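check this:
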Amino acid sequence: MTKPKYNRILLKLSGEALAPPAGKGIDPQQADILAQKVKLVKDLDIQIALVIGGGNLWRGMADGAAQGMERATADHMGMLATVMNALAVADALGRHGLETRVQTAIEMRAIAEPYIRGRAIRHMEKGRVVILAAGTGNPYFSTDTAGALRAMEIDAELLIKATKVDGIYDSDPVKNPNANRLEQLTYLDFLSMGLQALDSTAITLCMENNMPIIVLNLWHEDSIKQAVFGEKVGTLICS
């Protein structure tokens, strides 16, 4: 049997992956579907850490700062939203028989462990799925950047950003039906083209540490499994 190319991954998800059709909030059925997809990969004996955004509940810039709220306060509220999402996903994974640990960059010991790099790695080595919440713990940083940072810290071999689009396009495929999907990019290509699939801080951090990134469609069957086996799926960003 073919062995996976990557043995430890960080899976970055948007909060919208948990949202109901209306677009806001947490839908337990969506969490259950997500848990099934994670389990399919975990059953391959892959070590997995998750970072989940909070946009289904609160966006610091759009919902807060753009309305006059102080940016740091708005961003801290966004971090708390990611913790709510992390707990929902941990619950869904637990119902599918997976052992999980939620770790947060902002201490809230009554509901989660504080983020400690060595402990997170040890949990994964013991077969647990680790969900890393509350971003970096600092305002002004996106969960994309948190995902890139944590991927480096836990010695992940691949950062997967799972979205609702099947990769990165040279223009917005919603607005331009002739947009071309890009199978592979360098980090510098991504930055010079001004693409928006990840924020530039996350890309720069990955570039400086040679962390490969795959952007793929979460909802396509077996897309994450294809990525960990090194098959062509989505868009690969590397050096």
